[in-house]
Design goal:
Layout: H1 2-9, H2 13-16, H3 18-29, E1 41-42, E2 45-47, E3 53-55, H4 69-76, H5 82-95, E4 118-119, H6 121-140, H7 144-165, E5 166-167, E6 172-173, E7 176-177, E8 182-183, H8 193-196, H9 202-215, E9 217-218, E10 221-222, H10 240-252, H11 256-266
Antiparallel strand pairs: 1-2, 2-3, 4-7, 5-6, 7-8, 9-10
Length: 267
């Protein structure tokens, strides 16, 4: 949003909003200094095996949601670890994808939700871009040391996204289950965020584009996932922000024909 405003009012807007950008960054990175081999997850940060730090969704509370109190109590009544279930439900709501089979261990079983154990590819792409934006703001402020620090952090996150979320066999990006130490199998529109933020290589983008054209493209545009579960962030539903992410991401790599096709279908 700040970058969009900068396109209208000039890039010094980034300097004006640097305190807010840093506040957002600090919210997500809170607890990172406490991470170690015995405590690999604190709040919204996770220490990965290679030493890099990535983020997941989290909620401080493990109680039923006020807006869905009855439903949450009903869902948790036969579950052994009620607090874990309720925290995972809240964390999924924090993602905006409430609800989707991408957060479930068993795509047909809501009680298998394990949002807090997942490194989401889209969230980490967003935070990569936030670091790049902060680095640019510091550069414009003539604080080169801080600019270099955040630029390096952005590059480290980019490498970690490639390491943990890219699947060379499938030619696709997946969320990563850091508890199990392996990628999730859910295929979702979140895989287009590395194209939107230009993290993917040309070859990776081509693989993702081919995958989406084959498995996600329908008369009305792109469906959110390939499985129909009754959850609103699953097939056959499509959501406008994700169509935009897809269209812009594909244009970034020269797939304009496919991007225009998606836009026409969606409209």
């Amino acid at each position: 949003m700040v970058k969009l405003l900068g396109e209208v009012k000039g890039e010094n807007v980034l300097v004006d909003y640097l305190p807010q950008l840093e506040k957002e960054y600090n919210f997500w990175m809170k607890g990172s200094e406490e991470l170690n081999e015995k405590s690999i997850s604190v709040n919204r940060v996770v220490l990965m095996p290679g030493g890099s730090i990535l983020n997941h969704y989290w909620d401080e509370n493990d109680t039923p949601r006020p807006e869905s109190f009855k439903e949450d109590v009903e869902l948790a009544k036969d579950v052994t670890d009620k607090k874990a279930l309720l925290r995972n439900i809240r964390a999924a709501c924090a993602s905006g994808w409430d609800f989707s089979s991408r957060w479930f261990k068993n795509e047909e079983d809501f009680t298998s939700i394990h949002t807090t154990e997942i490194i989401p590819v889209d969230l980490n792409c967003l935070l990569f871009d936030l670091k790049k934006t902060i680095a640019k703001a510091y550069q414009l402020s003539n604080d080169n040391a801080s600019a270099e620090k955040f630029a390096a952090a952005a590059n480290n996150r980019k490498q970690a996204i490639q390491k943990y979320c890219w699947n060379e066999n499938e030619k696709f990006y997946f969320d990563y289950d850091y508890v199990e130490g392996k990628q999730k199998k859910s295929v979702t529109l979140a895989a287009l965020f590395p194209l939107f933020f230009e993290i993917a290589t040309r070859e990776q983008a081509e693989g993702v584009a081919n995958f989406f054209e084959k498995h996600f493209l329908h008369p009305g545009g792109l469906q959110t996932t390939t499985v129909t579960t009754g959850q609103q962030w699953d097939s056959p539903n499509g959501w406008a922000p994700l169509q935009w992410i897809a269209i812009k991401g594909l244009i970034n790599y020269g797939f304009s024909e496919l991007a225009n096709d998606i836009a026409q279908r969606w409209m």
